[in-house]
Design brief:
alpha+beta; 2 domains; seven-stranded mixed sheet; two-stranded antiparallel sheet; 18 helices; 47% helix; globular
Length: 491
């Protein structure tokens, strides 16, 4: 990487993020550009720089990704033209383009318009851009760390505890909003995937009561989606959520319940995800019996399915530990899905929370329901038809279950009990959240704890969630003087 990339790359990101242009953008071919949503910065080194942008080019509205390069030629020299992760790019943004080239091309051959920012940015914009808007790096994440000793310990704990509850409330609200949406769609008899903004006018005016949520399948679908999203971690959570919405509970129930149900679930999930190999294109000697079996099952199952199919390019394997590969998470998810649909997992959790008095015993009991031991083909494979060196012991282990308890089970149960007026059990869920101690940490949370001298907060979930909320909504957005800790530190 040459010096110009090192000097300008982050600043180009900031120019795009802040849309700090001296005039309206035009593509190199002369079409007007209107940026409706600049997209979300991609913190992963793989893939385009901004994801899920909305840009009007000429008379057409495009939804997709944005790639930003210092020079036009870097599209090819950086290999974007042969990288399937760039197939969803809708606009190529570069600073300089000496030959005034108008387009770049994706791996699948699609033509993408190019815009050269040098025409639309003032000459002093790049060297003078305000560091306050810079994308955080390791050195400038925490502006208050050098004066944090001025801040009272109790103030830090109180504010971070409040943020921990605020984060829990957000999780509950998100779960409740999705539940209302599922109920609304169910009444309209519309199956996922849907173009949701077409439903918003009716949905916004809809009044809900607890009677709208008596269908057990609504709760099963909600829990299924939340669990799969949690299994996806950061890199694959969107794809896992899309998989759960595509292969929904109504479809899963049509697969039947017998000795081969789990195998059919795996066949459905791996084929709909786009991760199952095409056995017709592979030499027979390289295809395992398991792969042949789920391929054969899919020939029957696919007649029942009319939903969205995902692609292999929707999934991330790069820079993941093998145990976090989406193949392993889907294998674990299939077993949890079986428990949801055929073993009344939700009912069992509700019963435990209603009957077990000791909070610690209750939490351990809930964990035991979710820890998923390995079995079958995926006990000895991380990917299709390539045996692993070591045996895989768990598809969903204790540390991942801790995350699912915090991010899925407790918000889900709180919403359930709140809707049906069981306030004493809602309070019990909050007790669980308040005393829960996680067995694993998050690097962001550890960085916050080191910056604030609050390392003793790391084991208590309420406080770790609060530190995460602090970073997401204050530190990373430079909202120091809106933060109670920042106010105390800088005043």
């Amino acid at each position: 990487m040459d010096s110009r990339i090192k000097l300008y790359e982050k600043k180009l990101f900031n120019i795009w993020k802040n849309q700090s242009f001296k005039s309206n953008l035009k593509t190199n071919s002369g079409e007007d550009i209107s940026v409706i949503d600049a997209g979300v910065f991609n913190e992963d080194s793989a893939g385009p720089d901004f994801l899920n942008a909305r840009v009007r080019i000429g008379n057409l509205l495009y939804v997709g990704d944005i790639e930003i390069d210092c020079e036009y030629s870097y599209w090819k020299t950086h290999g974007h033209n042969i990288d399937s992760k760039h197939n969803k790019v809708i606009l190529h943004v570069c600073y300089s383009n000496n030959q005034n080239q108008q387009y770049v091309y994706t791996k699948d051959g699609r033509r993408i318009p190019t815009v050269s920012l040098s025409k639309f940015v003032s000459t002093d914009e790049i060297p003078e851009i305000d560091n306050a808007f810079a994308i955080p790096d390791e050195k400038n994440k925490f502006k208050c760390s050098h004066v944090i000793d001025k801040v009272d310990y109790d103030l830090k704990k109180k504010f971070i505890s409040e943020l921990g509850m605020e984060r829990f409330d957000k999780k509950c609200k998100r779960a409740y909003d999705r539940l209302k949406e599922l109920s609304f769609l169910n009444k309209l008899k519309i199956n996922e995937p849907v173009i949701r903004y077409e439903l918003r006018p009716g949905f916004e005016n809809q009044k809900f009561t607890h009677e709208d949520f008596t269908d057990k399948n609504l709760w099963a679908q909600l829990f299924y989606e939340m669990v799969f999203e949690a299994l996806g971690y950061t890199k694959n959570k969107s794809a896992m959520l899309k998989l759960a919405q595509s292969a929904n509970i109504d479809f899963i129930l049509r697969l039947g319940d017998d000795a081969d149900t789990l195998s059919r679930l795996e066949s459905a999930l791996f084929n709909i995800s786009g991760l199952a190999p095409d056995v017709q294109k592979l030499p027979a000697e390289k295809v395992s019996e398991y792969t042949k079996k789920i391929a054969a099952e899919w020939t029957t199952i696919k007649r029942l399915y009319d939903g969205q199919m995902l692609s292999e390019t929707d999934w991330h394997f790069l820079q993941l530990r093998p145990l976090n590969f989406p193949t392993i998470r889907i294998a674990g998810g299939a077993r949890l899905l079986y428990s949801i649909v055929y073993q009344n997992l939700i009912g069992v959790m509700i019963k435990k929370l209603s009957e077990i008095r000791s909070i610690n015993v209750l939490l351990n009991s809930l964990k035991s329901l979710l820890i998923t031991k390995s079995s079958g083909f995926w006990k000895s494979h991380y990917v299709f038809d390539k045996p692993a060196k070591d045996e895989i012991k768990y598809f969903v282990g204790a540390s991942r279950v801790d995350e699912i308890i915090v991010n899925v089970v407790l918000p889900f149960l709180f919403v359930y009990f709140d809707i049906f007026g069981k306030k004493d059990l809602s309070k019990k869920v909050l007790q669980c959240y308040n005393i829960f101690n996680q067995s694993s940490g998050n690097q962001v949370v550890k960085d916050v704890a080191d910056a604030l001298n609050t390392q003793d907060f790391l084991k208590k979930t309420l406080l770790t969630q609060g530190m995460l909320e602090l970073f997401r909504n204050y530190c990373s957005k430079k909202r120091c003087l809106e933060c109670e800790i920042g106010k105390a530190a800088f005043n």
